[in-house]
Design goal:
Blueprint: H1 5-9, H2 26-33, E1 39-40, H3 52-61, H4 74-84, E2 91-94, H5 97-108, E3 114-118, H6 123-131, E4 135-139, H7 148-153, E5 159-165, H8 177-186, E6 192-196, E7 221-226, E8 239-243, H9 245-254, H10 262-273, H11 275-298, E9 303-304, E10 310-314, H12 319-328, E11 331-332, E12 334-335, E13 345-349, H13 353-370
Parallel strand pairs: 1-11, 3-4, 3-5, 5-6, 6-7
Antiparallel strand pairs: 2-8, 7-8, 9-10, 10-13, 12-13
Helix pairs in contact: 3-10, 4-10, 5-6
Length: 371
């Protein structure tokens, strides 16, 4: 097929960008299979939704819907600064943490530069790399998680940025304090390290290294977090990044004006103040995690131990067929790869007890039917 005029006008590296594929929405599955009971366990959302206080605050804030939001995001930044024991100059806010991950690539890398990330890491890292024309350096995983020693060895004079996720999505793996400290000490000071901690609230292992504790010693470190997971604000898209004030100032230079809408700012500030709801979310996740891991153990399914709010379970060569069969049963889970060994896994988000039960019942039914 002949190359179109628009394709010729497009920057060459844009043709290499692999579009992010979101999970199937509930409404689409309802239309497709005419189902009434649907359990969406594909997007690592908070099954409790958001704090009831958030809905009340949004209702009040609707009176200002005709006004532009606070472009400086003063109150939310100050609330975060107080909560995190930082200064507001150390914080940048994004339309979800995805925006900040992408902006960081735009600020620090371009054609001829290299960006390092792990195999089986969040797809946005590769997409952000491709979108700025940089070269992605994918380091093979170690037991489905980051191999930090190999990532250090992958650094060259062209390396501008390293993306890490702790815990990692989609595998749920994490690296401990000693491994992290050994890594960050070896990274050259001119290489920016983005530590994505989107699931930090769910971590139970005491060996977890809180990235915020290292900001004072490493000006090249940026820590990214989100309100989409434990805080339950996925629909409103609020993320934040913390780092050295100068580095944060560069992030803020190219973020879009009014990138966080008024309702989202209000909701995030109220959600932050309701830590009792966050603890309720974490407790529910721990209970659901125990239920699913016991189920997988009983069924003799291998899974990747997780410190997040999801599990990757290995269902073998039939994983793709099982995924489709689960959809017909009204259960939405997430394929994590289209080929290779990882294609044998499905990622299952921890849901409410009845949603977890729906998934387990459906999977049993599918397996019994196939036998």
């Amino acid at each position: 097929m002949a190359t179109s005029f628009f394709a010729k006008q497009t920057l060459p590296h844009i043709h290499k960008v692999v579009v992010y594929q979101p999970g199937k929405p509930v409404s689409e599955l309802q239309r497709e299979y005419e189902l009434t009971q649907i359990s969406k366990l594909a997007s690592n959302e908070n099954p409790l939704g958001a704090s009831p206080k958030v809905a009340q605050a949004i209702q009040t804030a609707l009176a200002d819907i005709g006004r532009y939001p606070d472009g400086h995001q003063f109150y939310l930044k100050q609330a975060l600064a107080d909560f995190l024991h930082l200064s507001s100059s150390q914080i940048a806010l994004g339309n979800g943490s995805n925006e900040l991950l992408s902006i960081t690539a735009r600020v620090f890398a371009g054609a001829g530069d290299e960006i390092i990330y792990s195999q089986y890491a969040f797809p946005v890292y590769a997409i952000s790399t491709q979108s700025v024309g940089a070269t992605g350096v994918e380091v093979p995983a170690n037991h489905w998680g980051h191999d930090l020693e190999a990532m250090v060895e992958a650094i060259t004079e062209r390396t501008k940025l390293i993306y890490l996720a702790n815990p990692n999505n989609p595998t749920g793996t994490f690296f401990g304090r000693a491994e992290w400290e050994n890594f960050i000490q070896k990274v050259p000071s001119h290489v920016i390290v983005v530590l994505d901690e989107a699931y930090t609230e769910y971590v139970t292992d005491p060996d977890f290294a809180n990235g915020l504790h290292y900001l004072g010693d490493y000006p090249n470190l940026l820590v990214s977090r989100t309100f989409s997971k434990a805080y339950g604000l996925a629909a409103l898209r609020v993320g934040y990044m913390a780092g050295h004030p100068e580095v944060i100032s560069y992030i803020n230079r190219i973020r879009e004006p009014f990138n966080i809408n008024h309702l989202a700012q209000v909701a995030a500030q109220v959600a932050l103040s309701d830590q009792a709801f966050v603890q309720q979310t974490v407790t529910l996740n721990q209970q659901g995690m125990a239920t699913l891991t016991q189920f997988f153990d009983d069924m003799a399914f291998r899974y990747i131990p997780s410190q997040a709010n999801f599990l990757c379970v290995r269902l073998g060569a039939d994983a793709a067929e099982i995924h489709q069969a689960l959809l017909q049963e009204g259960v939405i889970v997430r394929p994590v790869a289209s080929q290779g060994t990882f294609a044998e896994f499905l990622r299952v988000s921890i849901g409410l007890p009845d949603e977890n039960a729906h998934f387990m019942q459906a999977l049993r039914h599918i397996l019994n039917r196939s036998r």
